[in-house]
User: Which sequence fits this backbone?
């Protein structure tokens, strides 16, 4: 039986920043869970369009097609500074072929750690009304779908516009506050995903779904730093490129750094800026549930042409003395894909999973994962650049 969560505009009972919801400013001796909330897997955009007509396989209790668009796949996050967040949904159901009826969207959400719930306050659908994309889109009305792009990372520039990192190009995509594409997709020279290669006849130099998983904004707002999820053909195994993009010239500067995965089979889930030359990066294995072993967040510091790493949090070993979320005194985050990290203050971060609705089963082998939202208190300050905080 299909589960539907009725959603709409809900009043916030408290703002996130500066409240005990995430123990801001508290001092702990090891990474400690300070907040937990979840958005049920069966949460849909009420009154939207049907979706999932081409989805097959084990749907873990759900039946496709769905009458509405699911709110799922948290792949990037922007802090609005008022207790609400803009959260990016990914391409839909895992690939280009089955996601043509999934509408790309930025959701506006608000976690309530007091109740352990996440309120859905609205959102925007991504479109290309001015024909900035030069090739044929899936829909004639130029509403963007998961067959057109695979958005995996997001930042908001000083002018309020969004920059989104895509995996099908990989491309950088620039949208206004209403979700309208402002510029033609910007390709990364020398890196071609299979989805682009199939359209253009070029030779792919990257694997599918290994494009821009991380996108970080410089403290002064001048540059973006786009991190690939996978290794480019010819690069050392497990080495990922972090590329600098100039927002004034709308071009890559040619500067780049190498991030080395702990294992070539691992992937990154997100990358954000802490300060000039310093980043938080999620690194993960491909396991879930009982097979999840490596789910970590590193601080990466640019030194020459490489990024040095320091472990900040092992997400499989987080202290939980208050037993938040109904879990034990050691909290684990055993999801296949963990794709969102945001700095709340100098000692507190929030982390969200991508539940790959309805496929991921990190909490239960037979039930589709919820989207969980956690906050973690850190034993030492991240020393973030204040310009990056809302």
Assistant:
């Amino acid at each position: 039986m299909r589960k539907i969560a009725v959603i709409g505009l809900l009043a916030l009972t408290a703002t996130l920043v500066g409240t005990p919801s995430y123990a801001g400013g508290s001092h702990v001796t090891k990474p400690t869970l300070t907040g937990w909330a979840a958005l049920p897997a069966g949460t849909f955009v009420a009154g939207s369009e049907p979706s999932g007509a081409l989805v097959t396989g084990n749907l873990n209790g759900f039946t496709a097609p769905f009458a509405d668009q699911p709110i799922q796949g948290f792949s990037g996050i922007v802090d609005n500074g008022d207790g609400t967040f803009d959260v990016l949904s990914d391409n839909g159901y895992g690939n280009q072929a089955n996601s043509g009826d999934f509408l790309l969207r930025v959701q506006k959400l608000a976690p309530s750690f007091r109740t352990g719930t996440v309120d859905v306050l609205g959102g925007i659908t991504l479109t290309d009304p001015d024909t900035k994309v030069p090739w044929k889109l899936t829909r004639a009305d130029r509403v963007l779908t998961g067959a057109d792009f695979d958005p995996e990372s997001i930042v908001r520039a000083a002018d309020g516009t969004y920059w989104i990192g895509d995996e099908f190009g990989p491309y950088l995509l620039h949208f206004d506050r209403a979700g309208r594409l402002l510029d033609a997709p910007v390709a990364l020279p020398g890196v071609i995903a299979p989805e682009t290669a199939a359209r253009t006849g070029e030779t792919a130099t990257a694997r599918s779904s290994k494009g821009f998983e991380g996108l970080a904004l410089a403290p002064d707002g001048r540059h973006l730093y786009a991190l690939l999820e996978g290794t480019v053909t010819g690069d050392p195994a497990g080495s990922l490129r972090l590329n600098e993009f100039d927002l004034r010239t709308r071009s890559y500067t040619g500067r780049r750094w190498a991030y080395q995965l702990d294992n070539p089979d691992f992937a990154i889930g997100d990358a954000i800026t802490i300060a000039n030359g310093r980043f938080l990066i999620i690194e993960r294995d491909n396991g879930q549930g009982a097979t999840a072993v490596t789910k970590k967040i590193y601080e990466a510091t640019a030194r020459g042409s490489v990024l040095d790493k320091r472990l900040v949090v092992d997400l499989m070993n987080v202290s939980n003395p208050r037993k938040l979320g109904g879990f034990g005194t050691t909290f684990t985050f055993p999801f296949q894909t963990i794709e969102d990290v945001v700095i709340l203050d100098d000692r507190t971060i929030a982390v969200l999973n991508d539940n790959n609705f309805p496929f991921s089963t990190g909490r239960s082998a037979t039930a589709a994962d919820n989207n969980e939202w956690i906050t973690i208190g850190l034993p030492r300050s991240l020393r973030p650049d204040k310009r990056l905080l809302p």
